[in-house]
Specification:
Elements: E1 2-7, H1 13-24, E2 28-33, E3 47-53, H2 61-69, H3 71-74, E4 78-84, H4 90-99, H5 103-108, E5 111-114, E6 116-119, H6 126-134, E7 141-144, H7 146-157
Parallel strand pairs: 1-2, 1-3, 3-4, 4-5
Antiparallel strand pairs: 6-7
Helix pairs in contact: 1-7
This protein binds flavin mononucleotide.
Flavin mononucleotide binds next to α1, β6 and α6.
Length: 161
């Protein structure tokens, strides 16, 4: 099994999930930032994981663009999708996950998960802090889901149907 994990992040939690997932997967696993690194040709991989984080309801635009541009190829692969997102309402989280990837890709993916979230108050700019204050968030939180990472790895290890 050869896996490519492509992530988008602003403050590091989606990257952390990508690297944690890498440690749980068998075979060769490569991790690439969608904004900072060259993404190798997808034809070299059996499994592709796309993960990003949500700000004001949206995933990183570069990740969305990548998913759209590569959709045809991605539909030939085993695909997992995840987001890091902090909305407390599970229905809203589910909608953020679904709406931020192309419809056909979402339907095709064998894993679609919310990986939890982290907020590092000391890393946020004034605007970000103000936005969070309006949402009632006042302190740092560290709630990435180890279960999600284990579940995703187990599902990706299953033979491709
Ligand atoms: C300014 C700001 C806006 C955010 N907006 C949303 C949002 O609309 N929906 C959501 O579910 N989470 C939102 N979050 C929570 C982030 O998605 C969460 O902190 C995530 O772990 C950040 O990932 P990153 O470290 O990879 O950038 C927001 C966080 C900040 C700081």
């Amino acid at each position: 099994m050869k896996t490519l994990i492509v992530y988008g992040t602003r403050h590091g939690s989606a990257k952390k999930v990508a690297y944690r997932l890498r440690t749980k997967l068998p075979g060769e696993v490569q991790v690439r930032s969608v904004t900072k690194e060259r993404i190798p040709p997808l034809r070299d991989y059996d499994t592709i994981v796309l993960g990003g984080s949500i700000y004001m309801g949206k995933i990183q635009k570069e990740l969305r663009q990548f998913a759209e541009e590569k959709e045809t190829e991605l539909l030939q692969k085993k695909v997992a999708l995840y987001i890091c997102a902090g909305e407390p309402d599970p229905a809203l989280l589910a909608r953020e996950l679904k709406d931020n990837f192309p419809e056909n890709l979402y339907a095709h993916a064998v894993v679609k998960e919310v990986a939890g979230h982290e907020i590092h108050m000391d890393q946020l700019n004034l605007l970000e802090k103000a936005i969070l204050r309006m949402k009632g968030v006042k302190s740092s939180t560290f709630q990435l889901s180890a279960d999600m990472i284990d579940r995703t790895a187990e599902k990706l290890k299953e033979p491709h149907s």
